Amino acid sequence: MFKGKTAVAVVAVLILAANACLAQTLEENWKDFLHYTKIGRFDLAKGYAQTLLAGNPDPVALLEMSRENEQGYQIMVRVSETAPDAELVELSGKILALIERGRFLQRIEPKIIAEEVRRLSRTERGWFAAVERLRNAGEYAIPFMLEAMADMSREDELPNIIRALPQIGRDAIRPLAAALQTDNVALRAEIIKALGRIGYPQSLAYLKLVAEKDESNKLRELARASVRQIDPAMLNTPAAQLFFQLGENYYYHAESLAPAADADFANIWFWDAGAQKLTREEVAKSYFNELMTMRSCEWALKADPGFGSAIGLWLAAFFKAESAGEDTMPAYFGDGHADALVYATTAGVEYLHQALARAVRDNNAYVALGVIEALATTAGEKSLLYEVGAAQPLLQALTFDDRKVRYSAAIAIGAAGPKERFAEARLVIANLADALGQSPQPATENGNGWDQQAADSYALRAAEVMLKVALSRNPVLDLSAAQSALVSATTDKRTEMQVLAGQTLAHLDSPGAQRAIAAMALDANNALDVRIPAFDSLATSAKLNANMLPEETINAIYALISSNETAPELRSAAAAAYGALNLPSRKAKDLILDQAKS
């Protein structure tokens, strides 16, 4: 009885607390949330947290309140990490996420940034305060600073902005590098100098491109001076090579190139030549690095159209970007932009093998699979067995961790019909045989997935390639090693698989192969569209390899032919197979006399 009253009392308290929460302001809910969290009344703290979040609070307002109560903010951080109440941990995490969102919104507010740029030219103390704010704004400050520098009416502000520009630091590099395409020579000169003073290696490629190709002697010399400031040794490295190295650093997600952590997206910067200003495209962080790899490779090819290694890296990066699984790629690609496979099938085999070698080395199944599918579409035998250094990437793919990659590599090689012997030929057949017998149950591997559709697709493709190998009597790929898998496929539930297996087995000089075909043809549980092609395959086997059937099997075929209950089409196919077996004349005599009227 007492327990019941206690429960009612607790519920009443919670209801009153909830009603009080609804009537309070954001600041009051925030303070009460922190108070009850601090004293360990998690039940009440959760109520205030829920009400706070339900009110869709302004992230910037929350940020300001957290700054006013730093101790309370730290308590909430600890609670979100260590509290025994899982619900309170979740609620605290959501509030912290809103505060971080407020931090981000405040630092990119255009009005604030524009005002801080003007503040640079007021007082010396104001310059230092403004630089701190602009550094906090990071890459978002650069368009405002460059716009002010290019504005002739603000010429008196120029020295102070130029002085501040390199102080923004590493975050300024991507927009500054994009702005090097401006037609304003004076502005380009200041950008070049700022990149040198910032001093990070990611600027080197852009500066070296100016040093190599710019029409202005002055700008070329400024660029060389900035390169010397960052790394004098790079003066002798071509811009194309530097862009390629930058692209590889993005491809492997170098920490020094990571986008700002306080947003759930990243920016790719462009120069709008018409408007003569910077623009940015927000992209998912999940493939930002890959897109920047692609852009770096594009610049490498602009620097040196013959720098082919950039093409292989660009292809690998495009496939890797697609593996992020986002619904759409960036808007700047434009409507109807082709996918990675289209570019891969258009590229030469040299570049495909470069991309494949990288994928094999990195154990990246998605990239490897995409490249192999492109190779299978376009490449012949010699192209498929292309060497990159001392390695043959496609042959290495035959032992890849992911089954799709292994099977695709085997299918590509088998379909090409190799004529020259190679040590890995047995692996080709082993993978094709393995693909025939796969089911959809095994677990997903490396993100490529394995379901019923994948199992069916690879089994069918492997069977088709094995038949092609058999029909061509390929001297390199020995299908006898796959006989067991082919025999098993004759009892498969998929009609097409049964038919293809029988057609392939017909070319194997083996009693087991011929008997498996006959068993499939004689099995009354099989449909006619399996049995009739099976008898056709049996006829082929008999023509190529002669009769290898036991007497009881021959008698079963004979009984089928001689029965009036046998479907005409099946009877005809069985008779053709029977004749191809070239049996002793006694059987033919019996067949004729058995139907005689007198």
Task: Outline the secondary-structure elements.
Blueprint (H helix, E strand, L loop, with lengths): L1 H22 L2 H13 L3 H13 L4 H10 L1 H13 L3 H22 L2 H10 L4 H14 L4 H9 L7 H7 L8 H7 L5 H14 L5 H10 L3 H14 L8 H13 L13 E8 L4 E8 H19 L5 H14 L17 H7 L2 H14 L2 H14 L2 H4 L8 H4 L6 H14 L8 H12 L15 H20 L11 H7 L5 H11 L5 H12 L5 H18 L5 H12 L5 H13 L4 H10 L4
Antiparallel strand pairs: 1-2
Describe the overall structure:
- The protein has 598 residues and is an all-alpha fold.
- Among the domains are: 2-107; 110-285, Leucine-rich Repeat Variant (Alpha Horseshoe), CATH 1.25.10; 478-598.
- The chain is 66% helix and 3% strand.
- The protein has 32 helices and 2 strands.
- The protein has helices spanning 2-23, 26-38, 42-54, 59-68, 70-82, 86-107, 110-119, 124-137, 142-150, 158-164, 173-179, 185-198, 204-213, 217-230, 239-251, 285-303, 309-322, 340-346, 349-362, 365-378, 381-384, 393-396, 403-416, 425-436, 452-471, 483-489, 495-505, 511-522, 528-545, 551-562, 568-580, 585-594; strands at residues 265-272, 277-284.
- A two-stranded antiparallel ribbon has the order 1-2.
- A hairpin with a 4-residue loop joins strand 1 and strand 2 (277-284).
- The protein is elongated, with a radius of gyration of 36 Å.
Question: Helix content range of the residues, please?
Answer: 55-70%
Return residue spans where pLDDT drops below 50 for at least 5 consecutive residues: 1-22, 443-447
Which CATH architecture of the domain at 110-285? Alpha Horseshoe
Query: Which range does the strand content fall in?
Result: under 5%
Q: What is the structural class? A: mainly alpha
Biggest sheet character: 2 strands, antiparallel
Our Rg estimate from Cα atoms comes to 36 Å
Using the coordinates shown, work out and report the CATH topology of the domain at 110-285.
Leucine-rich Repeat Variant
How many E-type strands? 2
Please tally the helical runs, counting DSSP H or I stretches of 4 or more residues: 32
Oligomer: single chain
Q: What's the CATH class label of the domain at 110-285?
A: Mainly Alpha
Shape designation = elongated
Question: What is the mean pLDDT?
Answer: 89
In the sheet with the most strands, the strands line up as: 1-2
Cα(first) to Cα(last) distance is 105 Å
